Amino acid sequence: MSLAFRSGRRPILAGNWKMNLERKSALGLAAAVRERVGERDDVEVALFPPFVYLDEVARLLSGAKVKVGAQNCCDEASGAFTGEISAAMLVDVGCDWVILGHSERRHLYGEGDALVGAKVKAALVAGLKPIVCVGETLAEREGKSTEQVVSRQLSAALAGVSRLDLARLVVAYDPVGAIGTGKTATPDQAGEVHRYLRGVLGGLHDMEVAKSMRILYGGSVKPDNVRDLMQVADIDGCLVGGASLKSESFLPLLEFR
Ligand code: 13P
User: Fold this and answer.
1) Does the pLDDT value for residue 1 go beyond 70?
2) Range of the domain at 139
3) How many structural domains are present in the chain?
4) Whether residue 3 has pLDDT greater than 70
């Protein structure tokens, strides 16, 4: 049994497909994951397809242990927001989860801390479980401002979130330099930031709730490094990009123990 599970926190394996796959490969991959996960409940598995496939993937996974989430949502509930998707729409098509504040949203599309915070609130109101991403850039790491950056991002995203709602929320630490580069953070590096983030969560509310919350690691997670990462006490799961796109690389991640 992994440390993450001994801690009382059920590990999560999340596959962020980003802007990849098409209908046929998306449904094929979701079916393969459903089959492999079966009735396992020692790990929570969630898939994050592009918006247009959410409905079909959620139907395919209806009744299965594998859950579905979106990669983003709007901070507004409804109205004249061309091109946006509301949190309630995501619930309507069967989503349980939503990823918010991913570094690609922050850095490629200019999403700032305040917008991420507003999205978190909108998602919680609609009944979604947010995975809130934080992470420093390589320059920020080299400038030794990792803690300052992730603490600012987390505090802004969670400002005004009640203790009760925190229990529905998951944090993901995705150091930008590790995303899609093959340069995974070492278990020690990741563990240090995860421990720090748990302390920040404790400071926002209290250590009891902080200890119950899951903090995922994301950034070049692969079958050959998942075990070492998951051994780290404060790493409660992984948010996987590239390796989540093929059953050959995603399914072996389930054997992280
Ligand atoms: P990679 O696993 O491709 O590095 O992506 C990580 C990530 O961005 C998770 O959301």
Assistant:
1) no
2) 3-255
3) 1
4) no
